Amino acid sequence: MHAPSPVLAAALAALGLGAASCAFAPVTPAAAPAPARFAATPPAAPTATPPVAAQASPTERPEPADKRLGILVFPGVQVIDFTGPYEVLTGAFANGRRVFDVVTVGLSPGELDTSPPFAGLHMRPDFTLDDCPRLDVLVVPGGEIDAVSDDPRAMAWLAKAVGEAECVMSVCNGAFLLAKGGHLKNQRATTFYWFIDELKDDEPTCTPVHDERFVDNGKIITTAGLTSGIDGALHLIERYTDHFTAEQRAFGLEYHWQPESRWTRGNLADRHYITMVGAGFDFPDGAVRDWRTVENTGDEDHWTKRWTFRSELPRAELLALLEPKARAAWRRSAAPADSAWEFEDGKGAPWTAAFTLVAGPDASWTLALDIDRR
After folding, report:
1. CA–CA separation, 249 vs 75, rounded Å?
2. What pLDDT digit, counting tens, does each position of 123-156 carry?
3. Catalytic one among 132, 167, 172, 206?
4. Please, which residues have CB within 8 angstroms of residue 247's CB and are 6 or more apart in sequence?
5. In the predicted model, what is the mean pLDDT of residues 192-208?
6. Which of 48, 66, 196, 313 is deepest in the core (most CB within 10 A)?
7. 10-19, 32-41, 112-121, 315-324 — which one is most confidently predicted on average?
8. Phi, psi (5° rounding) for residue 295?
9. Can you tell me the mean pLDDT for 94-118?
10. In whole angstroms, how far apart are CA 340 and each of 119, 334, 346?
11. Whether domain 65-267 has CATH 3.40.50.880
12. What are the residue boundaries of the structural domains of the chain, listed by start?
């Protein structure tokens, strides 16, 4: 492999990245041994800050970080929940040194398989619950979290790690592990959009948040689903360094970081459908078949869902099957529609919802639901 050109090396240094952090960094057999993974005491700060272009060279090894950050991994962990933050955090440098010393923590020794259901990735964690050193920062991803929540040993380790850490960040439905451990008491919190309102089932004192990609309470940070963990990781860099360093990391990743953006999947208008339908409409066995979603789109103020299906039931009976779920969440409206409803959201804003059912040939039907902010 070839060393980077002087131009590229300078560009990397300007971003706070030594070439040693890149896949094409040359191997230097005669180089001095790398410093211990965790220094007993932080290295002394340099007496003068070198010019930016001199912060790193193609053969320079970064100094060890002051903060040890651990990412919990387990069978069934959602891959992007931990690899997104891992990519962001391992490449964070400030003044020629790593911001975090990032490690992975598994439930037991040996190779970890992320399947089922997220097949295709095998890894060997750096530590296990038994030998993991104290963590300054803990990241708790989501996925098939039963591997952790149903394991008393894992939950006991999580309680200890949260207690010892100065900052804890969950990603996606990893928030439910924090909720089960009692760590979201009186906290504002978010999670994967489909489950946001369910947080109160696990922790009645928490306040679910729909319109923030990450929610920072101080010690406890929760992020929304999947890619939101990248935003949370950049926020961690900003907290432990400054906005400039986090912004440069985002630039280096070619990521459009918008920390002030209020866009979240959980704040789109179909959240009112999710609240209404729960696990789905209660159709009798055999009454409806070949159910298929053919449209699912909208924004914060409007949403359209459309399904096709087959059924021999008459129109009136099919509409009646929608009634129980809609009536439990909304109230009847006099607006013209096959089934019209109205309601207010958590902030008191008025909304309307309308079902339209159209018959097709051979016992086929098309059902549409339009939800609109008034």
Report:
1. 29
2. 999 999 999 999 999 999 999 999 999 999 999 9
3. 172
4. 257
5. 96
6. 196
7. 315-324
8. -150, 135
9. 89
10. 43, 7, 20
11. yes
12. 65-267, 271-373
